[in-house]
Design a protein that fits this description.
Helix content is about 25%, strand content about 15%. By secondary structure, the chain is α/β, with parallel strands linked by helices. Helix 5 runs parallel beside helix 7.
């Protein structure tokens, strides 16, 4: 081969590689905490305005059969590992402060895999997957930077969390938990969490070289309860009460404002992506990690109406997720996707669109759903292991192409398995404001993209009508239905799980029992541990930190 031909081939190869790298999409994941099915306008409630989140879905894809885990830690483990929590031992109770538990070292995470493909990776907000040593914190698990907190929640203004130590006959462990990497951010006390996390997220986008691929994850505190597990912090309670004067319950008013402020956050982030010319090559995913907790432990007054169950429950209210995805790269937009999708699917899906070879990931529970979502094609997923908690003896499996759900037992005797929350559909609530959606930051940013079809009021109304499943509450509700043993539900035709049909479909139940048993036989025992007494924040200037690597901690004075 002649020299100039060799030079041309090499040059063309370099150009092709660079061009391919430039085409890698920016991936932005915005994760809400403990938000209910009925707390988004697009699902039919008129009570809480969420115009930016709604616009994201109406312009892109609304994921109508998307499932998460039942609580925080298991959901985040599934998201970042692409596996059911039973593979990592993270299926149990959400991680306590000072608990030395973490994603196994030999299990790769989503940011680690994307870094291998050249991505810059950042996490803002909640982690909740381990902090005893630096190797199990976000920057040890693939994120270039982390600004946020390690534990399950913090105060909306003081960033403090308390761990109950009564089981050890000790006073509660109380500590500050807001860090930039490992440096405590005491000076930021008093800043409102949602606004602060949004500001940091926008700063990352602003400083990012748009020619390089970005993976950015914002894990909000909202709408989890804050200080003492009871706070629903808002910047101005007087304005909140005036704005939501049509809501009777004062705590529900606070929840509504917490949600609305988070919705504005989504708008500001999409607007900034557009200003940086990154939106035309971006994939934006928004979802809640599990259902709302209307009553009980960490009650936040959210609503999963009309679904049965709350957070901690394996009923639809606990695990049927609210998710929307937008990208100009979608082949089909402005529609409802009814295919079965699980939170573990995002790792292989994002790895695929980032240019990775799925076969390099090895065996995962998650499956690549990009074609399913982008082209509205039939997906390859036919089942979902909802969860197995072998310590509390309750489990669940969805099978038969997503039609039937088998439950075996329930959380603490079914304390969260009823029907809760406000419907937001009566005349005391304002009408659904279509103009607010069309004038939202999200819609205006998307509409500015070249070749973007205009979103119309007619299209919004059509999609919203198709999404409303309030009809399933028109059936007679057996209030005493508790799955102390096995229950079977036809969740396609009875998404509110009003009828246990196991006696009528014993063959289906037996096949699902067999499949559930196979998962039992291969689970990694949950790795919950007692609180490590060495984690006491008093030892580290009243700060939660990497207590087994104390050189990174702020020492007590």
């Amino acid at each position: 081969m002649k020299p100039f031909v060799v030079l041309f081939v090499i040059s063309w190869g370099i150009f092709t590689c660079l061009a391919g790298k430039q085409q890698q999409p920016h991936i932005v994941v915005i994760l809400a905490d403990d938000v209910g099915w009925n707390d988004f306008g697009y699902h039919g409630s008129n009570q809480i305005p969420t115009p930016n989140i709604d616009a994201l879905g109406y312009n892109g894809v609304i994921l109508n059969r998307f499932y998460t885990q039942q609580t925080c830690t298991p959901s985040r483990a599934a998201l970042l590992t692409g596996n059911y929590p039973i593979r990592s031992g993270m299926q149990g109770y959400p991680m306590r402060c000072g608990e030395n538990r973490y994603i196994p070292a030999d299990m790769a995470t989503l940011p680690q895999k994307l870094k291998e493909l050249g991505y810059n990776t950042h996490l803002v907000g909640k982690w909740h997957l381990g902090a005893a040593t630096s190797s199990v914190t976000p920057t040890g698990k693939g994120f270039d930077t982390h600004f946020g907190y390690y534990n399950g929640f913090v105060g909306y203004f003081d960033y403090v969390i308390s761990q109950d130590m009564s089981a050890y006959n000790l006073s509660d462990y109380v500590g500050f938990d807001l860090h930039d990497s490992f440096k405590p951010q005491w000076a930021l006390q008093g800043r409102y969490a949602t606004e602060l996390f949004t500001e940091k997220t926008i700063d990352i986008i602003d400083k990012h070289d748009q020619e390089a691929p970005l993976f950015l994850m914002l894990a909000h505190l909202a709408a989890h309860t804050g200080a003492n597990g009871t706070e629903l912090g808002v910047p101005n309670i007087t304005e909140t009460n005036e704005k939501y004067d049509y809501i009777e319950n004062p705590m529900r008013k606070r929840y509504a404002d917490v949600m609305n402020i988070m919705d504005k956050s989504v708008g500001e982030i999409v607007k900034k992506l557009n200003e940086k010319n990154m939106l035309e090559n971006a994939v934006i995913l928004f979802f809640s990690d599990n259902g709302a907790q209307t009553i009980g432990m960490y009650e936040n007054y959210g609503s999963n109406w009309p679904l049965r169950g709350l957070k901690f429950s394996l009923h639809e209210g606990g695990v049927r997720g609210s998710g929307v995805l937008y990208s100009p790269l979608l082949s089909k937009k402005r529609y409802i996707n009814n295919q079965l999708i699980h939170i573990s699917d995002w790792l292989p899906t994002f790895y695929h669109i980032a240019g990775g070879n799925i076969s390099d990931l090895g065996k995962l529970d998650g499956v690549n759903q990009w074609t399913t979502i982008s082209e509205d094609q039939r997906g390859s997923r036919n089942e979902i292991l909802v969860n197995i908690d072998e310590e509390l003896n309750y489990s669940g499996l969805i099978g038969y192409k997503g039609r039937y759900k088998l439950l075996n037992g329930t959380f603490q005797g079914g304390i969260y398995d009823g029907y809760y929350g406000e419907s937001g559909r009566d005349t005391s609530n304002p009408s659904y404001d279509l103009d607010m959606i069309l004038e939202s930051d999200v819609n205006k940013a998307i509409q500015s993209i070249s070749n973007q079809r205009q979103l119309t009021k007619r299209r919004i109304n059509y999609i919203r009508e198709q999404l409303d499943i309030s009809w399933c509450r028109n059936q007679q509700i057996p209030e005493d239905l508790v799955c102390s043993g096995f229950c079977l539900f036809d969740i396609r035709n009875d998404p509110c799980e009003t009828r246990n049909i196991i006696d009528q479909h014993q063959k289906i139940a037996e096949r699902l029992k067999k499949r559930l048993s196979e998962f039992y036989d291969n689970l990694v025992p949950q790795t919950n541990k007692p609180v490590d007494l060495a984690s006491d924040p008093k030892l580290f200037n009243n700060t939660w930190c990497t207590w087994l690597e104390p050189e990174l901690c702020s020492k007590a004075e």
